[in-house]
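note to self: dont lose this again. the chain is below, predicted strucutre after it. 214 aa total, dont forget to put it in the shared folder this time
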Amino acid sequence: MKTILVANQKGGCGKTITAISLASALAKKGYKVALADADNQKSALQWLKQRPKDSAEIQSVDWRHEKSIGDAPKNTEYLIIDAPGALSGEHAAQLISEAHTLITPLQPSFFDIDSTRRFLKHIQDIKRIRKGKIQILLLANRVKPNAASSKDIQDFFAKIEQEPIAWISERSAYSQLAMHGLSIFDKTQKNYLSIQTQWQPLLNAIIDDPSDWF
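---
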């Protein structure tokens, strides 16, 4: 089982949308996927409750309580963890200890950039991070084309010498579909294809699957 943690200490940066998008993409591809919600707001759990029965199956896992962390359904191939906001300290170390990959989404705003900088600095003290045993991927999220703030986020990536694995445009489709327990990967219409392909670099980085996705 490969475990993918979606985390940042900044709330509202798109962690849950990232988690449900990845989970549905992998499930649609035919993998056995579980989505663990470690956030007390339980947004991912609520999304799964709304999910139509004829959609690609995603197992629900409740990790809101520390004693539950580590539990996962048998035969799961990919476990996606939706981390809580303000993740730090022992809780961060505990979730990171379960993960093979850490995905940190951030929006092109001063507050996201500043918070992400501090988050990445804080987790460097965690043993698993320090020893390089976890893959860390940054995801530029909700980016508006030609927005002035995009330059700020580009400057940030240049400063930390780590480019984002993918750039995800701001689209209303994400929130509209989420209300019904769906994601863009549950749709096959042509107008969703360009949105889905933005995620391909991230999918390529976390799995080894040479076949065509879209």
